[in-house]
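Collaboration report, partner site 2.

Our partner group contributed sequences for two proteins of shared interest, and the home lab folded both. The records are reproduced in the order in which they were received, starting with the first partner submission.
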Amino acid sequence: MKKRLRLTVLLFILLLLSGCIPTISVPIGSTSLSQDKSTLIVYHEEGCISGSCDVFLDKQLIGKVTPKTPLKVLVDPGSHDIYVDPDVSMFAFMIREITTQVFDKGKVVFMRVWLKTGVWATSIRVDSTAKVESYETKNYKTE
C-alpha cells in the first residue's frame, strides 16, 4: 500500500514538473517617440498565439509583433482602424476583428493582441490597455 502511494505521488510530481515551461519578462519602453505624433505599442502575451502577427493600421502593414518582441511605431493623430493577422491560423474559423482607436499627439497608446475563443469560431483582436512596463511570456527556446 505504501509503495503504491509513493509511486502515485512520484508520478504526480513528475507530471507537474514535465508541464513547466520557463517564462521570461519582456520589457516595454513606455516613452513617447515624438511630440507631434502618437506612439503605438502593440504586444501579445503568448496565449494560443505562439508565432508572429502582422499589424495593420488603416489597411496598411506597419510591422510584426511576436511574444518576445512588441511593436513600437509612430502614428498620425486622429482615428485609425487597427487589426492583426496571425502568420498561421490555428483554428478552422478565425475572425479578424477591427478596432477603431483615437490617437492623440504626443501620447503613448498600449494595445494588446488577444484571442476570443468560441465553440465554432475564434476571433483575434487588438484592444487598448493601461500603461505596461513589461509582460510575462513563455520561453520555449532556451539558449
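Second partner submission, folded after the first:
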Amino acid sequence: MSRKRKMASITSAGLVFAMLLSQSAVADLGTEQVKAAEETAKWVDTEYVVNGDFESGADNWDINIPKDTENWLYGSGAEKGYYCIWENKTEEEKDVSISQTVKLPAGTYKLGIKSTGAAGGLKLSAGEYVSTDLNASEWADDQSKWESIETGEFTLDKESDVKVYVSGKLAAWNKGSAIDDIVLYEKETDHTDSSEENQKGYTISVNQTEVAVENGDTVNLEAKITYDGKEVSELPIVSNDL
C-alpha cells in the first residue's frame, strides 16, 4: 500500500471515529432540546370566542335549557360581575347546553374555562375534537377559588368552523353550577428560520496534514467541534438516569 493510501485510510478512520464519538451525545442533546421546546410551548389567548366572560349577558351564545331550570347570566359576587349559572330545582336530571360556533384558521388550539358549584356532569368541548369534564366542587363566591380547567389540544389542517360548547346534565336539586371565562388558546407558531445558512447546531471538522505515514507510525488527528459558529472544548453530558 502506498504512503498516501495509508494516510487516507487513517484519516478516514479518524473522521469516522470522531463522528461516532460525538454522535450519541449530540443526538441525546437534540432530544432534550426538543423535549424542552415542547414543554415551553407558548399558548396565546385569542378572541375567537366572543363574550366568553359573559360581560355582555347572553350575546353570541345559544343557550338551551328546560323551562323549569333556573338560568342567570347576570350573577354577582365574582371578580367579574357576570357569569352563567344554572340551578335545577326538580327531582330529575336536566339537559343543558350553551354554545357558539367560531371560524378558526389552521393551527393548534385548546379551550379553557372556570367553574364552581356542582358542575359534575357537564363537559367543555370543541366540536368533535376534544372534550373535558368540569369538576364538581363546593360553591365559591370568590372567583379566584374557582376551578380552572383546560381541554387537551387539537390541530386543524385548514380553516374550519368549530362549535365551542358546555353541555351535559344538571343533577337533581342542583343548587348552582356556574361557568365563566371560556377562552380559546392558540399555540404560537415557531418562526425560526430553517434555511441552511441560518441553521444552528454542532459542526465537527477533522484537520488532516499531508504527511507521509509509515507502517506502525502514531498519527494524531485533531477534531474541532463548533456550536452556532463558536468552538467548544467538550460536548455536554446528558444523563438518562430517572
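Feedback sent to the partner group on the second submission included the following. Helices lie at 3-39. Residues 4-37 have pLDDT under 50 and may be disordered.
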